[in-house]
Structure formats: C-alpha cells, structure tokens
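User: Can you predict the 3D structure for this chain?
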Amino acid sequence: MIENQRPMTGDEIAGAIGVFSGGCLFVVAVGIFGYQCLEWLRNGIWHPLALGLAWDYFIGTRPTTSWLGLQKIIDGALGLPLAFGTMVFAFVAMLSPILVWSVVSASDSSDSVAPKQPSSGL
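Assistant: Here is the predicted structure, written as structure tokens:
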C-alpha cells in the first residue's frame, strides 16, 4: 500500500465493483451492436438479436402467466434489442451502489440524531 493512503471502506469497494461490472456490461453492449453493424455491412442483412435470446441461453425457460396483459409486457420486454437491454443492465449495475449507499446513509443519519429532550422550563 502507498504511504498516506487510507484503506477503502466497504461502500467504496461496493461502488468500485458496481462501476467495474457496469463498465464491462457497457462494453459488451457496444460489442453486440458492433457485431450487428459488422454483419449488416458484410451481408447487407440486419440480424436482430433480441433480449429473449440471452434469456433463453442463460435461464432457459421464458416466464409465462395466465394474465394476458402481463404476458404481453413480458413478451415485449424480451423482444427488445439485446444491446439495449445490456446497456440498461449496465447502468443499473453502475447506479445500484450509489442508490444503496444513499438509502443506507440516510437511514444511518436519521438513527444518529438524538431525540430532543423537553425543556424543564426553568
């Protein structure tokens, strides 16, 4: 460790992990879109890659429900472009440590405030 450098706190480590994982997912999203562009330039045919393709690969079965409106929402979400979905996950991964930290610090600050004692009036 470098002199005069303090060790990282848990919040800083969580934030660094979130930013790193979000950055990696962002690079993957750009790579997916770049692959689609390269294939289009090479063949002149756009090959759509839907979010459902990754869902099928990693999870296997798509969620089904008897509620028709909810099923339309699920099918619509899984029909979104894979690059867009990956980019959304990247931003969520980057922002989640910040949101968790702000909620935790807000609850810590409200717990640390001592209740006011009633004045004795003297």
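The chain has one domain: 14-104. Helices lie at 10-43, 51-58, 68-78, 82-112.
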